[in-house]
Structures are given as C-alpha cells and as structure tokens.
C-alpha cells in the first residue's frame, strides 16, 4: 500500500478478540546472475568435476511481459445446479465451518445456483463493509471529499480545529502517512502561519458527530489491540500510536490528540488544547481535504480498515439526512439499499465496519450485492437505463487471493488453485469468519458467492471457507 511502510501481520485481518529456499541436486546447478542464466552441468565424483569440466549454456532470450485485462466470455457454460451441488457437498459439510450459511450465483445473469440456509442471519464480521460500500456507491459521488478546517476562536489567539469526518490526516515529516493521498497536518500549519494570526491555544470541535464514539458490540480492548479507535470526526493516521503500522495500538482520545499534534507543530503548549465548539460567525483560517471517496473505499476494503469504514458510514448518514451517529449511519445504509431494490429482511447492524458481534446479515443479501455489481448493463438505483451501474466499482475493491490486502496470506499454501482467481472481502472475529466475492471458474464463468461461518474459531473456519471458493474455481460443474 503506497504512502508508508505498513506492517500487515501476515497479510491477514487481525484476529479480533471477540478475540532461503535451497535445493541440493547432484546433476544440475542453476546460477542466476543479473539477467543471464548460467547452467552448470555437473557429473559428481568424476575427473571432469575435479578439474573443472563445465559446460556454460547460452543466455536465454529476453521475455517481455504483456499484461492484459479481458472480460469473461458471456458464452462460457453455466454450472448446472446439480453439478455445483455435487461439487460443493463435501467441502460445505466440513465441521470446521460451524454454523454455516451460503449463497452462490451466476455473475452473468444473477441467477442463484446454490444455497445453504441463505436467509439465515449470520455475524458477518468485516463483510458488513460490503453492505457499507454498496450504500456509499449508491448514495455519494465517487469524487466526494470531506474537509477539515481551522477557524477563529472566541478569544484572541485561539483557533478551532473543526472535525469534518476525516481520519486520514497525517503528521509524518515527509507527508506520507498510513493512508495514500491523505491530507497533511503540515499544510494546515503552513496556512495558519501564512495568515499571520497569533496563536496561543487550540480548541477541537467534534460536534459534527453525535452519540457514543464506541458502538454496541465493540470491545474497548480492541483499541489497544489496533482494530479500532473511538470514532471522532478528526484523527491523525486513524488514531494509530505508530502511524505507519496497520494494527498499531490506537489512542483513546483521537480528536484531542489531533489538536495536540497541531499545537506542537505550531509551537504551542499541548496543555493548551481543549474540546469545545467553534463560535458562530467564525472565519476560516486553513483547510485540507480528504482523498476522493472512491480511493478511500478501496483502501477501506482492501485493508479492512474499521476506522475508515465508520467515518464513511457517517458520510452516508449525512447524505441521507440522518444524524451523524452509529444509529444514523445504519439507518442511511439500510434505507439506501432498500430504495435500490435490495431485500433487507434479516439485517441487524450496529455499526458500518462489522466489528460488532451484534451485527447480523443473511448471505443471500451479500451474494446479491456482489452479483448485481457483476451483472453486465445493470442500472441499480438509476433512472437512466443507459447509466453505468454504480456498484461495479465494488468488484475492484476486493482483495486478490494470495496477492493483496487481507487475502495476501491466504491461498499461498493450501488451495493454491484459487490464488489470483478468487477476489473476496474477508471477515474475521473470534466468533465468525466470512468470505464474500467472486471467482472465474475453469470454464470461464464468473460465480459470485457469500460464505458465512459462525461459532468456530477462525483458525479452523478460514481454511474451510477458502476450500469452498477454490472448489468453485475448479468447478466447471456443467
């Protein structure tokens, strides 16, 4: 991920509480030097070997990589329902899946091909972010940004840092923080200094958000564990105490800490930072803007960033006329998807990130969202029949098996047939694991899926989920 050196903990989502290769051969030794391969043909224990009788092969011809992106053929055969059921029977019965529910659909037509308790509400873990992302793509323009401002205070020398809902500001000396293209605290400092205003104290205004900054079903120990920070409308590098480390412990007071870092950068005693509200009629002194929504959604999905998810959820709340709280965000998400024609029966959400163990989603809904995103020429929520499907971008935000984000460490040892072919959002809590995305099967057909395991530890359930997605890749199943 650009913008800093990050520690990915094996490329997997952190387990939340709720929890030199050497080959010895006697016949052939291959030595690679720069772009030239020198092949040493050796006959062990012979006079030739003792006296250096070696044969040097000519260097190989250069090879030019020609990467291409091609659409899946619409004429590829569709797996039969019976064939798919037969192929999945064994892997779907694995006891390591615990309480398991799933849905698989055809990405070309949206037809549901296989289900197992698909209406059963399950704890989704981070696959709640699939629902969040779909709502964000429907409710907000892809270039939507949020603004963090500094305005004049109520007393001479006082400035107010007004939170606008951006946790991606960085105070790294080189300006390259955890989030790519995140705004820089140094830009605020430069604008303040250029204004010529004397400054001796900082007020931090967090009034944009209402209600608790910790959701029902969260464990406060996850703050120190690095999964979440209290959700304030202004943060530095997502509240990380080690700004470039993905699962760094987080601060318990992110907004105040942001004000303190601004104060220090301005040469002010950080003790002269307090919470408060900007006065009516204040004058703007400085401002920075976040990266566009489309980029923040990508980062949120690939790296399963809970803080970024919760702040984007509040952007949905604002766009739909709801209060900027956990409850308002959930109301906005559910209303947006229902208006787009999705069946929200069985949905219980307490947050936008899926960190709450009280969240419940049926696999039917998650599979339907990905299937609609995959359908050609769909117009979800669009009055113009020629308008592009806004959900299509969701497919590009999914991690690639064995390669990127929270799937980088999976499909590398087991189920390697799925590596590079499975693209899916992961979800991991101590009480639940899920995998939602799509795969190109052996016949070239796109299959979407939602696989949800509850009541098993992820050490057992995640490999079992991976095996199902790899089976879909190998299917053919016509």
Automatic annotation (TrEMBL):
<protein>
    <submittedName>
        <fullName>D-alanyl-D-alanine carboxypeptidase/D-alanyl-D-alanine-endopeptidase</fullName>
        <ecNumber>3.4.16.4</ecNumber>
    </submittedName>
</protein>
<dbReference type="Pfam" id="PF02113">
    <property type="entry name" value="Peptidase_S13"/>
</dbReference>
<feature type="transmembrane region" description="Helical">
    <location>
        <begin position="21"/>
        <end position="42"/>
    </location>
</feature>
<keyword id="KW-0645">Protease</keyword>
<keyword id="KW-1133">Transmembrane helix</keyword>
<keyword id="KW-0121">Carboxypeptidase</keyword>
<keyword id="KW-0472">Membrane</keyword>
<dbReference type="InterPro" id="IPR012338">
    <property type="entry name" value="Beta-lactam/transpept-like"/>
</dbReference>
<comment type="similarity">
    <text>Belongs to the peptidase S13 family.</text>
</comment>
<keyword id="KW-0812">Transmembrane</keyword>
<dbReference type="InterPro" id="IPR000667">
    <property type="entry name" value="Peptidase_S13"/>
</dbReference>
<keyword id="KW-0378">Hydrolase</keyword>
<dbReference type="GO" id="GO:0009002">
    <property type="term" value="F:serine-type D-Ala-D-Ala carboxypeptidase activity"/>
</dbReference>
């Amino acid at each position: 991920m650009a913008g800093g050196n990050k520690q990915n903990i094996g490329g997997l989502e952190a387990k939340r509480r709720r929890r030199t290769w050497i080959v010895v051969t006697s016949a052939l030794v291959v030595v690679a030097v720069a772009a030239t391969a020198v092949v040493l043909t050796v006959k062990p224990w012979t006079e030739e070997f003792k006296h250096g009788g070696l044969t040097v092969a000519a260097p190989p011809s250069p090879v030019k990589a020609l990467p291409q992106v091609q659409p899946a053929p619409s004429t590829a055969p569709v797996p039969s329902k019976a064939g798919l059921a037969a192929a999945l029977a064994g892997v779907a019965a694995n006891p390591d899946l615990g309480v398991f529910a799933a849905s698989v659909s055809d990405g070309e037509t949206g037809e549901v091909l296989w289900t197992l308790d698909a209406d059963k509400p399950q704890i989704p873990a981070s696959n709640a972010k699939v629902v969040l992302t779909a709502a964000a793509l429907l409710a907000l323009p892809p270039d939507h940004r949020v603004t963090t401002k500094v305005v004049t205070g109520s007393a001479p020398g006082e400035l107010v840092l007004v939170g606008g809902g951006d946790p991606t500001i960085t105070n790294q000396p080189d300006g390259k923080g955890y989030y790519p293209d995140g705004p820089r605290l140094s830009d605020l400092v430069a604008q303040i200094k250029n204004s010529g205003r004397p400054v001796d104290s900082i007020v931090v205004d967090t009034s944009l958000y209402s209600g608790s900054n910790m959701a029902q079903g969260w464990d406060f120990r996850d703050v120190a564990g690095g999964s979440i920070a209290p959700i304030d409308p202004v943060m530095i590098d997502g509240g990380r105490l080690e700004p470039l480390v993905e699962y760094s412990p987080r601060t318990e007071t992110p907004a105040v800490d942001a004000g303190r870092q601004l104060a220090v950068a301005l040469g002010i005693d950080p003790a002269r930072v307090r919470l408060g509200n900007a006065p009516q009629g204040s004058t703007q002194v400085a401002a920075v803007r976040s990266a566009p929504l489309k980029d923040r959604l990508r980062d949120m999905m690939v790296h399963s960033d809970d803080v970024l998810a919760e702040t984007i959820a509040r952007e949905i709340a604002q766009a739909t006329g709801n209060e900027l709280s956990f409850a308002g965000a959930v109301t906005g998400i559910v209303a947006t998807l229902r208006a787009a024609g999705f069946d929200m029966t069985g949905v219980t959400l307490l947050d936008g990130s899926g960190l709450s163990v009280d969240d419940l989603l049926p696999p039917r809904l998650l599979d339907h969202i990905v299937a609609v995103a995959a359908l050609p020429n769909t117009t979800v929520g669009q009055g113009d029949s020629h308008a592009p499907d806004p959900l299509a971008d969701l497919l590009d935000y999914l991690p690639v098996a064995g390669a990127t984000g929270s799937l980088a460490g999976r499909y590398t040892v087991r189920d390697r047939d799925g590596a590079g072919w499975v693209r899916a959002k992961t979800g991991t809590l101590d009480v639940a694991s899920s995998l939602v995305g799509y795969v190109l099967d052996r016949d070239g057909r796109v299959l979407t899926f939602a696989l949800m395991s509850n009541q098993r530890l992820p050490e057992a359930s995640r490999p079992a989920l991976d095996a199902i997605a790899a089976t879909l890749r190998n299917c053919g199943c016509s």
